[in-house]
Amino acid sequence: MFKIENLEISLIKKNKIDKVLIKNISLRIPNGSIVCLVGESGSGKTLTGYSLMRIQPSQNLKITKGKIFFDNINLLELPEEKMRDLRGKEIFMIPQEPLTALNPVLTIETQLTEIFEFHTNMTKNEIKKECLRLLELVKIDNPSTRLKSYPHQLSGGQRQRVLIAMAIALKPSLIIADEPTTALDVTIQGEILELFLELRERLNLSILLITHDFGILKSISDYVYVMYGGKIVEEGTKEEIFSKPIHPYTKGLIDAVPTIDSTPKTPLKTIPGYAQISDFYCPFYERCNSAQSDCKSEFDYIFINQKHGVLCRKIMK
Amino acid sequence: MQKDNEIILQCFNISKTYQLKEGFFGKKITISALKNINLSIFKNEILGLVGESGSGKSTLGRIILRLIEPDSGQIIFDNQDITKLSYSQMKPFRPKMQAIFQDPLSSLNPRMRILDLLREPLQIHTKKTTKEIDEEISFTLSQVGINFNDTFKYPHEFSGGQRQRINIARALLLKPKFIIADEPVSSLDVSIQAQILNLFMELQRTYGFSMLFISHDLRIVRHISDRIAVISSGEIVETGLTKEIFDNPKHSYTQKLIYSLPEKHFLKY
Ligand SMILES: Nc1ncnc2c1ncn2[C@@H]1O[C@H](COP(=O)(O)OP(=O)(O)OP(=O)(O)O)[C@@H](O)[C@H]1O
Ligand SMILES: Nc1ncnc2c1ncn2[C@@H]1O[C@H](COP(=O)(O)OP(=O)(O)OP(=O)(O)O)[C@@H](O)[C@H]1O
Ligand SMILES: [Mg+2]
Ligand SMILES: [Mg+2]
Fold this sequence. Notes:
The complex is a heterodimer of chains A (317) and B (269).
Chain A: E1 2-13, E2 16-29, E3 34-39, H1 45-51, E4 61-70, E5 73-74, H2 80-89, E6 91-94, H3 98-101, H4 108-119, H5 124-137, H6 143-147, H7 156-169, E7 174-178, H8 186-203, E8 206-210, H9 214-220, E9 223-228, E10 231-237, H10 238-243, H11 248-255, E11 302-305, E12 308-310
Parallel strand pairs in A: 3-8, 3-9, 6-7, 7-8
Antiparallel strand pairs in A: 1-2, 1-4, 4-5, 9-10, 10-12, 11-12
Helix pairs in contact in A: 4-5, 4-7, 5-7
Chain B: E1 7-22, E2 27-42, E3 46-50, H1 57-64, E4 72-77, E5 80-81, E6 97-100, H2 114-125, H3 130-143, H4 160-173, E7 178-182, H5 190-206, E8 210-214, H6 218-224, E9 227-232, E10 235-241, H7 242-247, H8 252-259
Parallel strand pairs in B: 3-8, 3-9, 6-7, 7-8
Antiparallel strand pairs in B: 1-2, 1-4, 4-5, 9-10
Bound molecules: adenosine-5'-triphosphate (2 copies) and magnesium ion (2 copies).
């Protein structure tokens, strides 16, 4: 079980908090579950994902509050060398931009091999076989040739699949997958999702899946968190979120999902405006059409039932 | 919609192979990334390019932009053969032909502030003052939901989707005649995605540009493309008006693609 409690991540300037980017987030990833994180671009999904690995993508960011648990261990209090063992072995992150995670001057084989050499006692031969098997598993054609390729010699979707192969290499407890299938066509995407489901079944793998693809959400998520402006504004099982969304942002998002029977060339439905930095308690205040003055100041996150929580004033009345 | 039937871009018989070595003692194998591609894009047209991962879409985009050389074939842009032009001879064409790349981070120089990144093309290709340039940057950024006050930041200080939008803004700044957009909205949430697609459609209406729109999302391809080209293993297997492709896909690969959409089974025409 992975658990984030009241996490706050801030932008630090001259040893002071300049801006709070992640505001008091709590979420749970039970063993063997697929938990999805959706939300506005820039709302904090990637930063939240990285925090589970205790990594900040840049030095001016810092966890300023909260706890992160892996079973009963608070990861934030773990010595760095222990954390290093966990990364890759127990927790693996597939980053949003695969090229940033791959070393441009090493072949795919070298990079996969390093993972095994660092964390296991496998022989060279065993590793070689395992590398091939992994590329086959993620449906890369000509796997033995691709092992000798460099990252720039692969297509966008092939790179994404190499990272998925790296992620499952050591059979971790948790994979954080940040938009892992954006460059994959529906067929291969389906096969990758099947693979995730199978690993979950066989190894009790948990996945935190960051995605904006509602098709994926509907097909494989057990539980969904919706983020906006650094906060979780709604959460619930996918049935709750899709059939009874409460937060106006969630509703707007679901309305904006593209459909196959739209009238071509007409304006698509959007949530008017763009996110702004907000000092109000409800980060969606400026764009919400049911906003009232009491949305500006603090109010409680409410669970309307065991499977559905929301941060919205409306529900309290 | 094709207001006129003039062609902005034509590809004739473009082929591209890559040599890869297999194993240590270098048995070479050849990958045919593109096989004899013929493709035309009309002025004021959005042409959707769809096909499986690894089928050659980005390779074709890079060849048209003259970032990599084809093995053979010819590219005609705006009635001029650009196939053999040198880097400096290509210069006058660059502002007319812009690209939004699949990998936003690697196409933004990590050591440049966003403001300098965005100013650069306008400084090279126009005679505008810095003040005018900044006004234009500010306006274009507002169209993609990025605040001008954030332009003093570096690329890595933005989220993935914000970087993608900065790339879109950069491509639009010079008001190009033609844009190659490689998965331009793939890392944006559905609401912002819709806002950007609406912007593309509005620009097509108001100042009439053409776009090669590469995407895996058939729903949005169907919504914004005038025509669609389907590519499979380096070959264009079918092209047609969007409605034709969706209502009556002819090639077996196109059929497989269209029928992989779960909703397709419930749709009545
Ligand atoms: N190094 C940094 N310095 C300053 N601000 C940052 C930095 N890294 C991220 N941010 C800001 O923090 C916010 C959250 O970023 P994050 O990458 O988590 O967003 P996201 O939800 O993953 O968005 P997307 O869907 O666009 O990838 C964004 O507004 C971003 O601009
Ligand atoms: N520099 C290179 N060297 C060797 N092979 C390459 C190179 N660039 C691309 N390829 C290969 O050419 C084929 C086409 O790649 P391309 O990037 O054009 O595919 P794509 O259609 O854009 O795929 P995706 O949807 O996954 O981005 C792939 O098999 C890829 O591995
Ligand atoms: Mg992100
Ligand atoms: Mg590509």
